[in-house]
Write a structure and sequence with these properties.
- The chain is of the alpha/beta class and about 230 residues long.
- The chain has helices at about 15-25, 50-70, 90-100, 120-130, 135-140, 175-185, 200-210; strands spanning about 5-10, 30-40, 75-80, 105-110, 145, 170, 220-225.
- It has a single domain, classed as Rossmann fold (3-Layer(aba) Sandwich).
- It has a 7-stranded mixed sheet with strand order 3-2-1-4-5-7-6, with helices on both faces.
- Strand 1, helix 1 and strand 2 form a beta-alpha-beta unit.
- The two termini are about 15 Å apart.
Length: about 230
């Protein structure tokens, strides 16, 4: 049994990027935890862009989605969404280190470092500080994989910086794919009708496409960042 942690910038990223893989880990008896790193923050005058009600709504949706996937360990961080990349880097690194250390993972899933969204980039880089090889945490974490998030990963400018090209494919059976899609259905505030990239139909199409790249019915694609064995 492996200790697995899925580190997400925002609620829904974890399911968009690795929902089927979460289901597969659980089917194989692994211990899976999810950390959603951002929230309203602690500014005395509230978040500048989102209301507390909006945060409460999406966190409730995340709880239902992940319960449906079978995840029993869900942690919400409180880095201020959208604005935390403007915080001192050492503060972000310290908080992300704390969030990862609480779960002592051996396998870590993180956002792709060249996603369009600054929160995704900042979270990846803070996590990479945590898994430095000369640290206890870095020695414990044996495998790090970056996932793709529709409407962020594919909206960067791939001819100016690296685009997402998977080199790891996780095969999904129909049950695992269906559980992912059902979990995304819990995110009423975050999902959109097709042909939006963040629609249940588009997510299924991507899973079928990733599967077809390896002769599979369905899959999720990842970029391998680190592996020691």
């Amino acid at each position: 049994m492996a200790n697995v942690l899925v580190l997400a910038p925002h609620a829904d990223d974890e399911t968009l990027g690795a929902g089927g893989t979460i289901a597969k880990h659980l089917d194989e008896g692994d211990d899976v935890a999810v950390v959603i790193a951002t929230g309203p923050g602690n500014a005395s005058d509230g978040h500048p862009l989102f209301t507390q009600e909006e945060f409460d709504t999406v966190r409730s949706e995340a709880s239902r989605a992940l319960k449906g996937l079978g995840v029993s360990r869900l942690t919400f961080g409180d880095l201020p969404a959208v604005t935390y990349p403007q915080q001192p880097v050492w503060q972000v690194n310290k908080e992300v280190h704390r969030l990862i250390a609480e779960h002592e993972p051996e396998i870590l899933y993180v956002p792709f470092p060249f996603d369009l969204h600054g929160d995704h980039r900042s979270l990846f880089h803070a996590a990479s500080v945590a898994w430095r090889p000369n640290t206890e945490m870095g020695q414990r974490i044996k495998r790090v994989l970056a996932y793709e998030v529709q409407s962020e990963t594919h909206w960067n400018v791939p001819y100016l910086e690296p685009g997402f090209t998977p080199n790891i494919w996780v095969s999904l059976n129909e049950s695992q794919l269906e559980r992912k899609l059902e979990a995304l259905g819990c995110y009423a505030s975050q999902m959109y009708p097709f042909p939006h990239a963040r629609s249940v139909k588009a997510v299924e199409h991507l899973a079928r496409w990733r599967g077809s790249q390896q002769g599979l019915e369905a899959a999720e694609g990842f970029v391998l960042i680190k592996e020691t064995w």
